[in-house]
Fold this sequence. Notes:
By secondary structure, the chain is of the alpha/beta class. It has helices at residues 13-19, 32-38, 50-58, 62-72, 95-108, 126-135, 153-165, 182-195, 211-221, 242-249, 260-274, 291-294, 298-310, 317-330, 340-354, 362-368, 381-391, 409-420, 427-435, 440-446, and strands spanning 5-8, 42-47, 78-82, 112-116, 138-144, 170-175, 200-204, 225-228, 463-465, 478-484, 487-493, 499-503, 532-535, 540-545, 552-553, 558-564, 567-572, 577-581, 588-589, 594-598. Helix 7 (153-165) crosses helix 8 (182-195) and helix 16 crosses helix 17.
Amino acid sequence: MAKVQLTDLALRDAHQSLFATRMVTSDMLPITEKLDKVGYYALEAWGGATFDSCIRFLNEDPWDRLKKLKAALPNTKIMMLLRGQNLLGYRHYADDVVAKFVEVAAKDGVDIFRIFDAVNDPRNFQAATNAAKKTGKHIQAAISYAVTPFHTIEKYAELAKQYADIGADSICIKDMAGLLTPYGTYDLVKAIKKVTDLPIEIHSHATTGMSVATLTKAAEAGAEIMDTVISSLAMGTSHSPTETMVEIFRGTEYDTGLDIKLLLEIAAYFREVRKNYKKFESSFQGADTRILVSQVPGGMLSNLESQLKEQGAADKMDDVLKEIAVVQKDAGYPPLVTPTSQIVGTQAVFNVLFGRYNRLSGEFQDLLAGKYGACPAPKNKDVVKKSLEALKLDAEVTHRPADDIPPEYNKLEEEARKVLGTSSVSVEDVLTYAMFPKVAPDFFKKRSEGPVVFKPESAPAAASTAPAPASTTPGQAAKYTVNVDGTDYNVVVAPAGTVAIAPASGGASPAPAPIPAAAAPAPVAAAPSGGTVIPAPVAGTLLRYAAAEGAAVKSGDTILIIESMKMELEIKSTAAGAVHFLVPTGTQVASQQPIAEIK
């Protein structure tokens, strides 16, 4: 066995970082025979955002993908990225759901479970690790890497020892933003090697331009496995090129022994496949050194880009990047990785748009209240107090958060039966519903239509517009589709002249879902006379009402919840009176669209 082995990320993190996790299974299967011959340590092919993207955008069953890849890769281990107690969703699940998910994933094809927790709380590894042990599969515990006053080499080494003690078979240093420096990595690997003899795998994005040198020094320090990606899907917000690292190590004691000619054939294949997804490509293609301060991971960068476009605030990126550092500090310096990257990033967007902490997402409140686990450092007491008041809690949660969640698998199974309208339901469908209960029902309805198909686009004109909308009834929004440099944008012009713009084809990340052309926002309701109109502060989906239609509310009362940028945002009344809702739940709304009236 070679002293250094490589895990290739082409089937998961590369396309998640570069083009919105949009690669369909049909673009993966033709190259699996060659991938299987390379001799990789593993192929990371599942987990992360792939599950979400499959059902949200691709109309593809993620479990079916896993089974097909397992059948096509008999000689290569499949690795998945698992968010500990969050699994693949954005909340903590009960232990029985965690156990069932890991059991089924192992049965359907996962060989290595790379388990991480966004705040590096070992308690959040417990259920997933115990479940994986029962399957006999490999458990890799990942350290979410960050550079803050509270993240020191000594603390990382201590964390690695804790992970070894709870049952890990290997350790991963998971560097989401490309913050690992070559010499810092050397010292970190050496420190971890002093407290455990478990193999160490290095996962570092290329976003800041340091990753190739970082992997080289990691090998010199004794790390046994490196994450790379085939060159045609490398660099930018992705990772170091596989072929580059093979050649760097060739003829040395770290020689991987991999066939460069075979790798070049694989690179040529993915070079052509990548053309299918040009419209999803992030504009961040080179090295972005702003991340050395903001610590924003690659996938989060493209996500923020999409979010700001959706809110009509694409020019605010620099302001948001600066604000992220403030929010991260106030939240106790959580590493920026899913879901904390989404929570912190979205709160930074809200701060820039509405003023610092004038609006808190529900998830940010939960993070400040300890519902995601213990953050590495003390938090901003004023923001914690505000969050606890909103949640009606007396104090922060200090125990393992999942201890508060009763068993829920049977309940989720019953709900899935009702959604599907069947007397029985597969365990995979129950788990799909559990991960994304708002998205899964629509996916189940359309699943039989089969996955979407992406093809290279012909060169478009610099700018074109669709014909005028068919309906411009007074009191309704006029809706257009405008193409600028090959990208379609939905433009909604409200009666009052407010304009909302959202990319029709989606941003460069599976979250949030931009407004698709086939489901543009519902017509804007005319502003009723004689009352106080409550507009949507952001573009998003009206998730649920928090008050009954016609109920008496006071100024400051929460009247409804909007899901925006995958976070829940409470919308409060600005007057006292009876509330009347102007749009139904489930409606996609534009920023400043009237959504309720107080009379």
